[in-house]
Amino acid sequence: MNHAASKNLNLTLKIWRQAGPKQAGGLKTYQVSGISTDMSFLEMLDVLNEQLIASGEEPVAFDHDCREGICGTCGVVINGQAHGPDSGTTTCQLHMRRFKDGDTIVIEPWLAKAFPIVRDLIVDRSAFDRIIQAGGFVSVNTGNAPEANTTLVPHHVQQDAMSAAACIGCGACVASCKNASAMLFVSAKVSHLASIPQGQGERSKRVLNMVATMDAEHFGNCTNTGECEAACPAKINLTNIAQLNREYLKASLFSKE
Amino acid sequence: MVTVADTPLDGRCPDGNIASRWDQRKRDLKLVAPNNKRKYTVIVVGTGLAGGSAAASLAELGYNVLSFCIQDSPRRAHSIAAQGGINAAKNYQNDGDSVWRLFYDTVKGGEWRARESNVYRLATLSTSIIDQCVAQGVPFAREYGGTLANRSFGGAQVSRTFYCGGQTGQQLLLGAYQAMMRQVSGGGIKLFTRREMLDLVVVDGIARGIVTRDLVTGKYETFVSDAVVLCTGGYGNAYYLSTMAKTCNVTAAWRCHKRGAYFANPCFTQIHPTCIPVSGDHQSKLTLMSESLRNDGRVWVPKTKGDTRSPDQIPEDERDYYLERRYPSYGNLAPRDVSSRAAKERCDAGFGVGQSGMSVYLDFSKAIKEDGESVIREKYGNLFHMYERITDENPYKVPMRIYPAVHYTMGGLWVDYNLQSNLPGLYVLGEANFSDHGANRLGASALMQGLADGYFVIPYTVGDHIATRKVKPITADRPEFHDALESAKSRTTAILNVNGTHSTEHFHRALGKIMWDHVGMARNEKGLLHAIEQIKTLREQFWHDVKVVGSGETLNQNLEHAGRVADFLEFAELLARDALHRDESCGGHFREEHQTDEGECDRNDADFSYVAAWQFKGVGTDSILHKEPLTFVDAPFGVRSYK
Fold it and tell me: In chain B, which residue's Cα lies nearest the Cα of A149?
């Protein structure tokens, strides 16, 4: 075996606790011990919560579901970094071997006006659903589809579309951006659908409506800092934002839809 | 002794030529006129492939759809984690596939314990699913010329699996989700996120609504409808450790069962052969490594017991490629149940690898040598990356270590050919029903079934219920709604009032251990009887000793989990009882008393060729068994051999 043998860590955790959207919140300090380096970050939080329940304190609320990096439900800011220190990795896939014995870890929720805090580390990301509702789809009813191989999509076009479509909608791009911009999220869906034949019919309307909704939901503007790309667990590329800007400009100037 | 109902259960399948049964049924189903559809409300619970596709398609038809999910967004449902692909009988590869072959492979894969008519319909609809998903913009893998690509999956000798890298479920789910979002924006779907269904409301014998708890505010609500479509997935988390998402649960299905819906074949659970092995007591879930990896990966263990050499030090002739040895014609693509048992057999016999000895190698070195690392990276890059993150081992350099884990549940609420349960107005789709996979599901068939049910079956059948029964408009003032609401509330209050000493997690892990040890990959009478007693005891302990902190009036994940575990503790007993009653081995249900000399399933068609549908009679009280006889004409009984 080439991997390091597992060890146990003692850690100090500073975690954002907030009882509800209207209540004031603050960082609270906890100690955990005997954390195996083979544990995932969320399993470490499980240990803390078991400890809190035993002592009669309410466990820390955090969103999570698949715990295999694909559902996009989990996500916290770990020592100032969305999803923590590993690139291309969701919080649930971050493992404790990344930390050292005696470390202090600060854990906060996504902080953005468009993502109000629900409780502790949980935020409301329904703004993302509303952006998709504004046009992140192809208008085709069930039953209307032609034979699949009548739509040819060259291999390289499919590859580009797939890389953009891989977005898991976790919101790390927003949380890592100093402006809390949702440009990476929006650009991923716009690029995916703009690059394939099926998305052409609504290409202009889609980008205009999605960007308008993004603005209405109080996401900030993009200043091309690139933090979003660095934080993105699905490795969505910054070039999608460039494509979004091109799509938007073209649609604003020439759209007949 | 099991009490068996006098009248056999009728699946209400059309008869005649199997290839035209669905057409015949569509001809017979009553329609609701376009203008009238908007007068009717359909509740869809769950937003995975089945629920998402159903909600979108019903709203497109004009029904008023109320869609519920426990996650913060419909896009999170666990269908998203399906990796490998979706089957369809397109025969694009010109390799001998056909609707009939997909039908036959599925019936055989499920060891002749699924309904022929349903499976044939599924195989027929499979091709329309691919058309629909491509039209939505799902980025399926392509050949250089732009046509759709395929790969092979377990249990088939043709290449019929369509895929999007290792993220097929994600892309199909996002397709359905986007179709849903389009309907939300058009007003056809009203979306309720972070809502948990806690009861079904039955009025005059017909399903007419649900009770939910708002997981943010703790508020209970009732919703009235003309039909309820349940798409709430499988119950694998009864085993605690599984590849399912943490919120996957049996609650909605179990509450429907307690209101009268039959639960069919709960003992048919699927243990998937290629999962990352358990690394310690802290483990909260297990991660699947897609079956598609077995296209290029070779499964082996050392030929010598307890060989502790690192894999690269073990020469080729000292390795036992046991799947290739035992199943020469399918090799590493033997079906899941067969491959899982073979891994267990090797590990139990002392040939397992890794620290615990409870894993086997999945080795890509031959494929990497022959095709190059870049080809393997393009096919499986994200899976290799995920493996490395979890295990800290690089699978391009050292073989993966894998072991079987609970992955899917073939059993579920009983439904007829129209996907309607025995309770009129309650439809059950996708993994939540029992219908299409028999005793074992083939890889890449779950996505197919979820989408077939949601896109192409329910839009036809739900209208028939509305048109023929002429359900009367009612309001939530009816006592049935009030009673269901109060019963859901009082159960939550009861959990909060126990105020014991052990956490929900403690009970869930304890249940999981009982289930894995005695109701897992190998079962026997003694173990099952023991498990039933242990489950009863644990359930009693739970209600005397569980400790849930916080209140019911706020977001309280601890309380949500406790409610689900309370239901698992009731349901698990039924699962074990079903396993005890099915005194034969078939598919994922392996009774040690019934095996061939080579350790394969010894099926008993004479006595057990039926669907076991259980009627609830009270917690801890014996359920009544309704048998739906299964007959096989177009795919006659055979030996399920993969040699």
Answer: B147
